[in-house]
Amino acid sequence: MSLLHLLMVSLCFSRLVVLSVELKQYKEKENMSNGSVSLTVSDERKNFISYNLEVESNDKAQRRSNNSVYPNVVLFLVDDLGYGDLGISGHPTSRSPAIDRLASQSKIFTHFYVTSPVCSPSRASLLTGRYQVRSGIYPGALGADNPRGLPLNETTIAEILKKKGYRTLIVGKWHLGVGYEGEYLPAHHGFDDYLGVPYSHDMCPCYACFPDKPCEGGCSTSHVSCPLFSNTTIIEQPMQLQSLTGKLVDKAKQFLKDSAQDDAPFFLYMPFMHVHHPQFSSEEFSGKSARGIFGDALLELDHSIDTILQTLDTFDLADNTVVWFLSDNGPSLRRHEGGGCAGALRCGKGTAWEGGVRVPAFVRWPGHIGPSRTGELLSSLEVLPTIAALTGADTSGLKLDGFDASDFLLDKTSESPREYFAVYPMDPSQETGPHAVVYRHLKAHFFTIGDLLSDDQNYDEICTSRHLLTEHNPPLLYDLSVDPGERWNVANDTSFKISLIEMTAWRQAHMVDMTWMPSVTNDHDKYSEPCCTDHYCEPFPSCCDCPLK
Ligand SMILES: *[C@@H]1O[C@H](CO)[C@@H](O)[C@H](O)[C@H]1NC(C)=O
Ligand SMILES: *[C@@H]1O[C@H](CO)[C@@H](O)[C@H](O)[C@H]1NC(C)=O
Ligand SMILES: *[C@@H]1O[C@H](CO)[C@@H](O)[C@H](O)[C@H]1NC(C)=O
Ligand SMILES: *[C@@H]1O[C@H](CO)[C@@H](O)[C@H](O)[C@H]1NC(C)=O
Ligand SMILES: *[C@@H]1O[C@H](CO)[C@@H](O)[C@H](O)[C@H]1NC(C)=O
Ligand SMILES: *[C@@H]1O[C@H](CO)[C@@H](O)[C@H](O)[C@H]1NC(C)=O
Ligand SMILES: [Ca+2]
C-alpha cells in the first residue's frame, strides 16, 4: 500500500467519523433522548395542527398519537424528463403550467441527483433509500423478458408507510420486475393496489401513440404486447396508450376520494409513462403544443398532475399532503426532437455526466415547507428517510444510503445533511465503483464512458458510445457552481487540491462500505414475459394478446 493510499484511507475514515458525529448531533437536535418531540405548526385552513411524535424508548421508533395529524404522501416520478424540459427550466417551447405552479409552491432543489442514468436502478434507489448495487438492480434496466426483480427482502417506502397504517397505491410504470408468477409486482413490495404497465412502453410493439399519428419507431417487436395490470392481473394486452393516462388518473382520483372519506392516511406513488420514448397522448393533447410530440406528451403529463392536485384541493387534503416531484433520469438524447432536453447540463440519459443524473426535483407541503429554491446537494436516496421522519415511520434495522433531510425541508437548518454523492454509471462494476463523486459544488470523474442513449450523433463526442471506458488519474474535476455544464477541468487548480484528495478518499471508503448483490438484470427467459393467455402459447408473442376485459 503506497503512502498516499494510506493517507487517503486514514483521511477517509476520519471523514466518516466526522460524518457520523454530525449525524448524531443532527438527530439529537430532535430531542429524541427525552422520548418525545412536540411541534406546533400554523396552517392556513385549520389554524392549528398539533403534531406529536412519540418515540419508543427501546428502539427509538417513532409513533404518532391518536389525534395527531400526520402527512399523506404523493410522489410524482416522471420518466426521462430532462433538467431543461419544464417551463420553469426555461425551455422556450415547453408548456407545463401545473407543474410550474406546483414548483412555485415548493422547495425547489437545483442540485438533486438520482442514483442511475436509467430507469430500474434509479427506481430501486428511490423506493429503498439504497444504492442499486445493494439490491442487484444493475447493469442497465430490467427487460420485458427478465424473470427477476427487486429482491423481496428490500424494504420500500410503501412498506414502511403501510406498517404505519397508510393506504398505498401505485399507478403507472413500476419497472422493478414482474416474475414468472407476478412475484415481483408492487403487491409484494408494500402496495395495496396497482394499475399500470410494469416496464417501459418501448419494450413491446408500438401500436398507436397519437390519434391519426404513428408512433416514432424503435419499439421492440419481439416481445409480448404491453400488459396493463390491475394489481396482479392483466386486464388489457395490448395496453392502449391513448387511453392509458386517463385510466391511471381516474384510479388515483378514486383512491384520494376514498382515503379522504375514510379519513385514512395514504401514499400515492405515480410513476408516469410520460415522457419516455415513444411519445404519446390522447386526442385532447395531440397536436396542441408548440414542441411537437414531446410537447404534447408533456401537456398530457401536466394535465394529469393538475387533476391530482385539484383532487387534493377538492377533498381538503392539500395542506396535509407532502407532494414530491422528480424525474428518474436524464433525457434520451438519441430520440432527437422526440426526446427530452438536459438544458445547461452535459450529455443525457445513460451517462454519469450531469445531464444523465441531475434532475428537476421539488417538494411541497403547504404551511410547513416554505416555497424557496436551494442549491444544496440532495438526492433521491433522501426520499425514504425523509418521508419516514415526516410520518414517524420506522426505519430501524435498515441499512440506508440516504439521509433524513426533514430538518432541511422544514427550514430548521439551512444545510443539507448530504455532503457527498457517489455517481454510478448505467453499467456499474465492483472494480470501477462509482465513476464520479460530487462533493458540495465539486464533481470529480474517475472514469468516463459515453452511451448510445446520449446519442451517437451528439456534437459532444464524449457523450457518445464511441467514448469507451476511460480512467482519469488525476480525475477530471469540475466546479459545478460556475460550470454546471462540466466544460472546464480544474483538476490543476491548487485551491481544489485538498478537496480532490478528500473526494478520492471518500470514494475509497464508500467502495469499502458498499455491498454488491449479484446482478439480477441480465437474465432472460421469454416464458417469463407477462402473458394474459398462456406463457407457452403459439405463435409467441402475439398469442399472448387478450381481448379487452
Ligand atoms: C429541544 O430542546 C431544546 C432545549 O430544551 C429547545 O430549546 C428546542 O426548541 C427543542 N427542539 C425541539 C425540536 O423541540
Ligand atoms: C421531556 O418530557 C417530559 C414529559 O415526558 C416533558 O414534561 C418535558 O417538557 C420534556 N422536555 C423537553 C426538553 O422536551
Ligand atoms: C389511542 O387509541 C386507543 C384505542 O382507541 C386507546 O386505547 C389509547 O388510549 C389512545 N391513546 C391516546 C394517546 O389517546
Ligand atoms: C436479501 O437476501 C440476500 C440473499 O440472501 C442477501 O444477500 C441480502 O443481504 C438481503 N438483503 C437485505 C436488505 O436484507
Ligand atoms: C393485490 O394482490 C395481493 C396479492 O395477491 C392481494 O393480497 C391484495 O389483496 C390485492 N389487492 C387488491 C386491492 O385486490
Ligand atoms: C494539468 O497539468 C498537467 C501537468 O502539467 C498537464 O499535463 C495537464 O494537461 C493539465 N490539465 C489541465 C486540465 O490543464
Ligand atoms: Ca427513465
UniProtKB/TrEMBL annotation:
<keyword id="KW-0378">Hydrolase</keyword>
<keyword id="KW-0325">Glycoprotein</keyword>
<feature type="domain" description="Sulfatase N-terminal">
    <location>
        <begin position="71"/>
        <end position="393"/>
    </location>
</feature>
<dbReference type="Pfam" id="PF14707">
    <property type="entry name" value="Sulfatase_C"/>
</dbReference>
<dbReference type="InterPro" id="IPR050738">
    <property type="entry name" value="Sulfatase"/>
</dbReference>
<comment type="similarity">
    <text>Belongs to the sulfatase family.</text>
</comment>
<keyword id="KW-0732">Signal</keyword>
<dbReference type="GO" id="GO:0004065">
    <property type="term" value="F:arylsulfatase activity"/>
</dbReference>
<protein>
    <submittedName>
        <fullName>Arylsulfatase A-like</fullName>
    </submittedName>
</protein>
<dbReference type="GO" id="GO:0046872">
    <property type="term" value="F:metal ion binding"/>
</dbReference>
<keyword id="KW-0479">Metal-binding</keyword>
<keyword id="KW-0106">Calcium</keyword>
<dbReference type="InterPro" id="IPR000917">
    <property type="entry name" value="Sulfatase_N"/>
</dbReference>
<feature type="signal peptide">
    <location>
        <begin position="1"/>
        <end position="19"/>
    </location>
</feature>
<dbReference type="InterPro" id="IPR024607">
    <property type="entry name" value="Sulfatase_CS"/>
</dbReference>
<dbReference type="Pfam" id="PF00884">
    <property type="entry name" value="Sulfatase"/>
</dbReference>
<dbReference type="InterPro" id="IPR017850">
    <property type="entry name" value="Alkaline_phosphatase_core_sf"/>
</dbReference>
